[in-house]
């Protein structure tokens, strides 16, 4: 056997070993639903299972992206709502009326609104809500303290509107 044939044989053997190692690594990354008897799968079956698993992961990623966008309230024109959180603040002579409209997944915003009102020394007089078809409507009435600055209502409104999406 000539040295050229021998080196080609070594290169080919190394290539096969590398492919075997790569297939083994791929197979180790795929959760196996198949036989529990411990028998090993053929290489084509392993590759087929890995391909199916990757396709499933791609579908899962697509579903999760859609879910994330829904939770963020992104409107791509196909949704009827304009956002996941809407806040409106009305002020009249030291009295505040905060109207908050959220989806069920954004109810934490109500707690944040109450927290901000307390931080700004506004006394919450009344809070009510109603839920219709997965949308929650909150109305909060608060009184700004007499010793509050003339900018208190504007500052509260600005802080609350950071939650509007």
UniProtKB/TrEMBL annotation:
InterPro entries: bHLH_dom (IPR011598), HLH_DNA-bd_sf (IPR036638), MASH1/Ascl1a-like (IPR015660). Keywords: Coiled coil, Nucleus, Transcription, Transcription regulation. GO terms for cellular component: RNA polymerase II transcription regulator complex. One of its GO terms (molecular function) is DNA-binding transcription factor activity, RNA polymerase II-specific. Pfam families: HLH. The keyword Metal-binding does not apply. Residues 3-57 form the BHLH domain. The keyword Transcription applies. It is found in: Nucleus. Its main location: nucleus. Residues 47-74 form a coiled coil. PANTHER family: ACHAETE-SCUTE TRANSCRIPTION FACTOR-RELATED (PTHR13935), TRANSCRIPTION FACTOR BHLH162 (PTHR13935:SF90). This is BHLH domain-containing protein.
